[in-house]
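hey m, so remember when u said the tokens were messed up on ur end? i reran from scratch. heres the input so u can diff it against urs
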Amino acid sequence: MNILVTGASKGIGNVIARELSKVGEVFVTGRNENALCSFGEGKYCVCDLTQSIDVLCDFIQGKQIDVLVNNAGEYIYGAIDSMQDTDIQKIYSINLYAPTKLITASVPYMKSKKWGRIVNIGSISGVMGEAYASLYSASKAGLLGLTKALALELAEYNITVNTINPGWVETSLGVESIEQSEFTEEEILSAIPQKRFVEPVEVARLVKYLISDDARGITGQGINLCAGLSVGI
């Protein structure tokens, strides 16, 4: 397997890339070259998904990627009437347009091979909605629609498409989103049935399962990995 993980400079993406290196040839992308170079020469592509995505598409085709993990994402907290055009463009560009564009670059090789795996990292906010994070919620909900449609379109080629929807995850982005919100960490934890944040390695191991042959019958699904948050309180 030739695997590409986006947003692998830090957080969930970095943990996913390290975990998947146990089962395939891993390539990574992100904006921080210093963080990516540890994966080895020729194994990374420095890319800002809002500006140089065509460079990454060429990289995907050159490396014959047959497992694509769309992990890179952006979060903005604020009232909808405070959002600027730049905020709207940035969120949709990174969270929805970029995954779609990278899928279009990956699928031709997957089709020729009659095998492929696409895993999108969504969010529980795309399932339930999150007040004051409407752009983020909408972009992640869009990933779920894309996942379902592509799963149907690509099933005959033995390509599976799934989305993992994490809840609050113990990463720097998770901490930043707490700081931006109107709630304290204690208040957020009290609303999570398991009273804990999801660990990045839990997401990584679920990705590893979804790209395995054991999961070949799972496609078109949005899997909530949220410590029970989606069920209720």
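this time it looks ok to me. The radius of gyration is 17 Å. if urs says something different then somethings off w ur setup not the seq
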